[in-house]
Design brief:
Layout lengths: L12 E7 L5 H12 L4 E3 L8 E8 L6 H5 L3 E9 L1 E3 L8 E4 L7 H9 L3 E5 L8 E2 L2 E2 H6 L9 E13 L3 E8 L5 H11 L4 E11 L9 E2 H10 L1 H5 L14 E4 L1 H8 L14 E6 L4 E7 L5 E6 L7
Parallel strand pairs: 1-13, 3-12, 14-15
Antiparallel strand pairs: 1-3, 2-3, 4-11, 4-12, 5-6, 7-10, 8-9, 10-11, 15-16, 16-17
Length: about 300
């Protein structure tokens, strides 16, 4: 006799989880997915176990916007401990080297930070999820193997000194996708001549989600479990919230029909370029589109959802 299949729900929406420390992003995702009994779920960019903060979890149809959130800019608050470098670039790794820290000098710190603003190159750390010949770099690193990594271009939109002490800096970073904050902290430490590692890290923004108060803690999720699925679902944001920074385009019935068939359509007064949110005349969100060179709106990702504005 086969094993009875567990109950799973077709639930759609986005949960802005405030990831607790000491848990991988996937562990957090699987735990919340079990609470929701969701059939389908994914997260949008890993946070290290040490890190806390915004981890958007996408359920059901919302998994279709995961790529847009992965590509979005991020904002972090971090503490870099100076004078100590570690294997992993954070406090979870073994100490490699300790060096004396020069006396606190805000002018020299600001000069060092200035070197990392704008477009920079980073060499991805060995303790990362990138693959080399099919194997994750962090698996190779744990075996003591180091491989050559090509530099990557990333953009540091803002890098601000919030506070400093005798052997630490508190920084706020607004950066493009693909930025390794641990590597940034290590490079700043090298620029100061003493090395550094990340001892605290918190993500406060992912793309359009820039309100830290909108995050939901694991404790809040667990409390909602006790109340039932309605309470859990009330914690979810609508799918189109992930695209809230894009202009909205409303389609008439004919345009919506042809666009659903995969055909670009001409929409009066639509933006002249870029990505857009697509709505039917009744206000129902139907997907993401892109303005073509000829001015027509082409479908990029369409959704099966009953959400209205």
């Amino acid at each position: 006799m086969g094993r009875k299949r567990s109950f799973r729900r077709d639930v759609s929406g986005i949960l802005l989880l405030d990831k607790p420390p000491g848990m991988t992003s996937n562990e957090a995702l699987q735990k919340v997915k079990r609470y929701y009994k969701a059939r389908k779920a994914g997260h949008t960019g890993s946070l290290d176990p040490l890190a806390t903060g915004m981890l958007p979890l996408c359920f059901g149809e919302a998994t279709k916007v995961s790529a847009f959130l992965l590509d979005a800019d991020k904002r972090y608050r971090l503490r870099a401990t100076l004078g100590v470098t570690t294997e992993t670039g954070d406090s979870e790794g073994a100490v490699i080297e300790e060096r004396p820290v020069p006396p606190p000098d805000e002018t020299k710190v600001e000069e060092a930070l200035a070197r990392f603003r704008g477009e920079i190159e980073q060499i991805p750390p060995m303790y990362s999820a990138l693959k080399h010949e099919g194997e994750r770099l962090y698996n190779l690193a744990r075996k003591g193997v180091e491989v050559k990594r090509e530099p990557r271009r990333v953009t540091i939109h803002a890098l601000e000194l919030i506070a400093m002490g005798d052997d630490w800096l508190e920084l706020e970073v607004h950066c493009s996708k693909g930025t390794y904050v641990r590597t940034l902290a290590e490079d700043i430490g090298e620029a100061l001549g003493c090395g550094a590692h990340v001892s605290e890290l918190r993500r406060t923004q992912v793309g359009p989600y820039d309100d830290p108060d909108a995050m939901v803690t694991m404790e809040q999720v667990e409390a909602a479990v006790e109340e039932g699925f309605a309470a859990l679902d009330a914690l979810l944001l609508p799918i189109e919230s992930a695209l809230a920074h894009w202009p909205a385009v409303t389609l008439n019935e004919d345009s919506a029909y042809y666009l659903r068939q995969g055909q670009p359509v001409l929409v009066p007064r639509a933006p002249t370029s870029g990505m857009v949110r697509l709505f039917e005349a009744a206000g129902r969100f139907i997907g993401a589109g892109e303005i073509q060179d000829d001015g027509r709106v082409a479908p990029r990702r369409l959704f099966h959802t009953g959400t209205t504005r």
